[in-house]
Amino acid sequence: MTGPAARLGWYLRRVARMSPAEVAWRMRDQQLKAAWRPRQVRPGQNAVASALPAGNRVFTAVLPAGTADRVPTEARAAILAAADRLLAGEWEVLGVRREDMVAPDWFVDPTTGRRSDPGRYAFRIDHRAEEQVGNVKQIWEISRLQHLTLLATAWYLSHDERYARRVADQLRSWWRENPFLSGVHWTSGIEIGIRLICFAWIRRLLADWPGVTALYEQDNLAIRQIRWHQQYLATFRSRGSSANNHVIAEAAGQLIASCAFPWFRQSGRWRRRAARLLESELARNTFPSGVGRELASDYHGFVAELGFLAAVEADASGHPLSEATWARLCAMADTAAALADTRLRPPRQGDSDEGRAVLLDAPARNRWASLLAVAGELVGPLGWWPEPSCDVASTLVGALAPSRHELADDRPARRPSRFRDAGITLLRTRGTDLPEIWCRCDGGPHGFLSIAAHAHADALSVEVRYGGVDILADPGTYCYHGEPSWRAYFRSTLAHNTAEVSGRSSSSPGGPFLWSRHAVTSETEVVDEGDVASWVASHDGYASLNPSVRHRRSVSLDRASRMIDIFDEIEASGHDIRLPFHLGPDVQVDLCDSRAQLSWPAAATPGKAQLELPPGLRWTLHRGETDPILGWYSPGFGQRIPAWTLLGLGRSVPGVPLTTRLEFADGSTSLKSTASREAVSWYASNARLSEAPGNQVEAR
Asked: What is the DSSP letter of 7?
């Protein structure tokens, strides 16, 4: 959104995705925000003394003695090295290297140089407007204060006074420069919830530092800030079409703070309400299988982290959450273990901004592995789980938990490969001496709630890895704000390994976090028998075209020959088709007509493959192009690098499938094979199963 007309159009589309009850609530919320204007505390203004709680302020939620001694040596060294770089002012923030972290300006966006007004009433700031705040993700990320939990962890492990002093200096700076409802850092509840988690963990990690009570319990501004944050969340929270991972972070932050700092007369009420909200929203935000309903893998991990941290804090305070909530968290952990590839990497489905609930390990630590290590301490790993190494987070969070929750009765005895409610199917090779072939097939809903904020137009897309190396890659996310053309590309159908018809995405975007039309996908059949695993699905994202189109796709993995066959049928004639295959950044390609030779000699798991492409399309190679955008891969938020994309162009022909075969060089067959008539015949007998009675699955 760059101008008034664009903003008006966005607001109209946004309102159209709301229920009448949500519209009424938002109108009430706007009235309340206007009424709170007199409560704003401006920078330099003294807060009202009545905001302070009466009675003793005691922090009791400390870690058991000797916990630091159990932290693995390698994890300890990584934390101290990262902390030393921070002391020197160096820190990477969402792909941007900063060197100003000795005394950061909390309001400057380093990518645009813009500085938002720290004295402006928070609810008069449009944080989506780059001209007002710059790239808000950049300034919000620093003010989550997670770099301070890392420094506090470094002090906990080393008792080096430098780390604690830097934490104290920057906490006091943030508290002083961001009084209640002044500036951009009071515009979003998720940011406030995450800061509360950091406040609690910083206090816990510095428990033995001589200056900690002066920093917290004896500092009136600290007390006010902890109260202000909780007052905000008790009054303003995400609801309706916005009640995704944001509401989980808000409830978790409120619950953790009210358990760790029960110093206010409202603390008991805040704790009870936050616990109820967290339990109900965790159930709403996840499928029964444990997969996050946002269908964005990174947010699955984020929500699981938030849930586990809040549940542990509640246990430690003597106010445990229900066993049903622990069972849902356990299901999320089992799902995470099942989805991981051989290198403990999750799928790259949907949006990712690398958000964390709290930072207790060096940033380079594999976040998914850390989640599994923490979950293993809290609910116990199953025999089929991969084995992540112990780290700082799992040691500390496990030590805070009074006991492990044993929930073995309802957990899967074998590693699941299909999550029917979420429409996720994994076709993967089983344990052999050869590198794992891992293939994710997307046959699920477009996203969560009416706006599906973190979804991509990726219906029927596939993602293939070889020994954990991206071969057919999901390009990722790259950005949220400030670069609309890049935001639009990375979540488009063209940016995923699936068919685009008539130049449009399978779902229609209405804004950077809004989809106005959602494709409905149906999984028809999933079979896993012996050496063959197969998946068949279709979607209606092009039903409004004339003539109407349904895209059907069938994918099979032959474990013995180590081949993947993909069959696409566009069930209407005369439409333009673009069929992209995005290669991982390690993959080199040599294209000749419709045959591509792939190799990745410098990757963590080197290998070769041959990609036989549909000969009925015209194939071209693209890499690092900007007009139009094509041939990119985002290794992390705020980062993009060139990578090869194979693009096939043609016209749809009903009844004639587009056949693709990916054959790895370590299989028992030669790389000279082509997509066979037998394979096409297999497609013909299987891909139309959706037309037979009794073979339908629920439309998602």
From this structure: H
